[in-house]
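User: I'm curious whether this sequence folds into something compact or stays loose and floppy. Could you predict its structure so I can see for myself?
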Amino acid sequence: MALTGRLFCLPDPARKPLSPDARPLEARLTALIAPSLEAMGYEVVRVAVLGRERPTVQVMADRTDGSLIAVEDCEKISHAVGALLDVEDPLPGAWTLEVSSAGIDRPLTRSKDWTRFAGHLARAETEVPIDGRKRFSGTILGADGTEARLRLDDGREVALPFAALRRARLVLTDALIAATAPPVDPTKHGMN
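Assistant: Here's the prediction. I'll summarize afterward.
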């Protein structure tokens, strides 16, 4: 006799969805390095730990004044973060450190990112379905302290709770490139 049937898994309403802060190692590393970076004039956009045998710690940062990050900035951040990780030793064994700017098609990890890039295109994925789906693409409308808002390609608006976001990032477009380009200095380009 064979049994057949379907298995249904219903979400537990008491279970909180995962959030970036629910990843304990990344949260600990962010708490460890953020104060030093802030004192240096930078802010953490994202910390990710990839791999197991010899993990890679990826740190994405912005300048607090909003100007673009240069290679020299990444070098300063790398020295500071490397020294903190060496002293505090939150990772067992050997590890690799990668420091970068968030880039143009950056991840959207903070409420202020969603507000800053309102009007631009983004893609987002949630841990749990919202309105029957987990993947969203559309124009950023902004954010408050608890949720980001998108106008979807079909014109509907959706609120994405930060606690439910798995990942979100800007979509590279000509408008985004133009909006994030450094201002042209007419004295350096013969326009004076």
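Summary: The helical segments are 24-39, 71-88, 111-116, 174-180. The first helix runs from residue 24 to 39.
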